[in-house]
Amino acid sequence: MATVGFLHTAHAHVRTFRDLLHQRDETVADRHLVDTGLLAAARQSGAASVRAALADRLRRLVAEGADVVVSTCSETGPEAERVGERAGVRVLRVDRPMAEAAVLAGRRIALVSSLDEAAATLRPLLRESAAAAGREVRFVEVRCPDTWSAFESGDVLTYSASVADAVRHAVRALEPPVEVVVMAQASMVGAALLLRDLDVPVLTSPRLAVEAAVEAVVPVGR
């Protein structure tokens, strides 16, 4: 049986990614490993400081049968990809498929983050994806740092509503307008659902990452 592993830094992500995977393909198994200390350590000392821990967590998921591992933390994702490449483990950072879709959706992009570190890791990926697609893009930063404490405390509903309010207010005031809104963190999937009233696409990473992971492990035409 094909198996997708997920490396999380918050327990709230387990249900989100499990549900998305089962919606996409019920025949694909899932394995989840949560380490809340990874993000805290990376924020304090840099993502390179958790390199050894990432290698250990990736090995554990592979030992449990994972054919590919999705690193669902935007901040540690780039390092997880590098560690996986050295260790021979297929690792997909959660925001890569979203970045590739975003640069095709528009040239003027609203980049939303509640953690500055998340925007800092996504920005170069967007530029890399734009270069690969032969497109020029511009970013408009939408920061909502005051909302993160609600997510940390487990109040996902308040977090999602607060992020959505901040994005709605900022995007509608922009002139010229943006063509696509990109949520820098997987934690913002709930906020995106509240922004269907916007006139531009709102992209989040979880669903696109799950689709890419399934495509990596399920034979074409199966």
Textual characterization of the structure:
This protein has 222 residues and is an alpha/beta fold. The chain has 2 domains: 3-94 and 208-217, 3-Layer(aba) Sandwich (Rossmann fold), CATH 3.40.50; 96-204, Rossmann fold. The protein contains 10 helices and 8 strands. Helix 4 links the parallel strand 3 (68-71) and strand 4 (91-93). Helix 3 crosses helix 4 and helix 5 (96-105) crosses helix 10 (205-217). It is globular. The chain starts with a strand and ends in a 5-residue tail after the last helix. The model has no long low-confidence stretch (mean pLDDT 94).
The ordered string of helix (H) and strand (E) elements is EHEHHEHEHEHEHHEHEH
Number of H- or I-type helical stretches: 10
Tell me the CATH architecture of the largest domain. Answer: 3-Layer(aba) Sandwich
Largest sheet: 4 strands, parallel
Q: What's the total count of β strands?
A: 8
Helical residue percent band? 40-55%
Alpha-beta classification = alpha/beta
Q: How many domain units? A: 2
The Rg value, from CA coordinates, equals 17 Å
Low-confidence stretches: none
CATH topology name of the largest domain:
Rossmann fold
Strand content: 15-25%
Please state how the strands of the largest beta sheet are arranged side by side.
2-1-3-4
What spatial form do the alpha-carbon principal axes imply? globular
Mean pLDDT equals: 94
For the record, give the distance between the C-alpha atoms at the N and C termini, rounded to a whole number: 13 Å
CATH classification, class level of the largest domain: Alpha Beta
